[in-house]
Request: fold
Amino acid sequence: MTAGDERAVSVVVADDHPLWRDAVADDLVGAGMTVLATADDGPSAVRRTLAVRPDVLVLDLNLPGMQGHEVCSALGSLATRVLILSASGEQADVLAAVKAGATGYLVKSASRAEIVAAVEATARGEAVFTPGLAGLVLGEFRRIAAEPEPDPGRPIPELTERETEVLRLVATGMSYKQIAADLFISHRTVQNHVQNTLGKLQLHNRVELVRFAIAKGLETP
Reply:
């Protein structure tokens, strides 16, 4: 959420280490956010997130009962965005989480300020990654895009010129903030274009959107 928004960013924090979980929750509250609930295992993370529908779920990757990517999958098309906050920076863990629908991925060595900024950016719909991981994820999107389309016969609704322009920039890995600056439009306008495009293309998240754009060759100028 931006400074001009009336409502504070709402969050659920899920981690099985109580000291870390409480510290993150306290930091987010101190930054003006609202922590609606906390969870110490995967199933409770799913239940509480579905119950309170926060803007952001801050999720540990290795939870008892369910892994982080399983939690993401269980949330389905819920509007809540997921920021993974994990001790692991392993490629397989990162890709599994993002493919399951996580918006971003931050390692726990990040500073308090970095974590707070990442949650705020995630709430705005931006993809946030620990430095070095964004290129990995974009490379995997390109690899997936090279695979056959699951439904090549599905018609593609016509996008507006601006929607296509925003989609092309999303496919290059740019954040919504960067796209807004590049196109001289507001961050909210970028979000609206992305949401409209998702609806027209019958896609569910940024992962699917980037895959679609790369498959159509839109990531090249």
In short: The chain has ten helices and five strands. Residues 1-5, 150-155 have pLDDT under 50 and may be disordered. The domain at 150-215 is CATH 1.10.10.10 (Arc Repressor Mutant, subunit A). The chain has two domains: 10-131, 150-215.
